[in-house]
Design a protein that fits this description.
Blueprint: H1 2-17, H2 32-39, H3 41-50, H4 54-89, H5 96-127, H6 130-182
Length: 183
């Protein structure tokens, strides 16, 4: 029982530590510059609203490329460790020492990503003026809030659609039972 509990905890910890992007190239995010170009108007609008100079844009772009590259490498490490855990779990005799070691490595790598995120903010802060940075953070918070609202609305729409399908199936079953009862 204790071994099963340890296994469940290890699985929970490793799967919830960090969402790893899919490895299918079709689903992979685009490189930094293309990604921001795709976002286009929002990034450009924010840059314009903040009064970011071309020199600042260049510095920010270089920093983002570097940091995204470092984080991509670390996400790949996490993916490899997750695959190693999956492989270990498929063995007849699971070695909890291996799983715990891999989980610890995943935690450390996730912490490294968090450090890069903090370093990135510090770098951005060093390029922008206090006013630019404050406005940028406010815009970022607004975009996150909008994203959360959009996501909640989409979830609600899907949920409603599923409920309608379930109700429709239940109605069909009731109709069939009614027809059989009438015969």
């Amino acid at each position: 029982m204790k071994k099963l509990l340890s296994l469940a905890v290890a699985l929970l910890v490793t799967t919830s530590l960090y969402a790893v992007p899919p490895q299918d190239k079709g689903d992979m995010p685009e490189p930094p510059q293309k990604h921001h170009q795709k976002m286009g108007p929002d990034f450009e609008k924010i840059a314009k609203d903040l009064g970011i100079t071309d020199e600042q844009k260049e510095k920010l772009n270089e920093m983002m490329k570097e940091d995204m590259s470092r984080k991509k490498e670390l996400r790949q490490v996490i993916q490899q460790k997750m695959e190693a855990i999956d492989a270990e779990l498929l063995k007849e005799n699971v070695d909890m020492n291996v799983i715990n070691a891999l989980a610890a490595e995943i935690q450390q790598t996730s912490a490294d990503i968090s450090r890069i995120n903090v370093e990135s903010k510090l770098k951005v802060r060093s390029v922008l003026s206090f006013e630019q940075y404050t406005k940028m953070e406010q815009s970022r918070k607004e975009m996150i809030e909008k994203f959360k609202q959009d996501k909640a609305e989409k979830f609600k729409a899907v949920q409603d659609k599923v409920e309608k399908k379930v109700d429709k199936k239940a109605d069909k079953k009731t109709d069939k039972k009614d027809k059989k009862a009438k015969k």
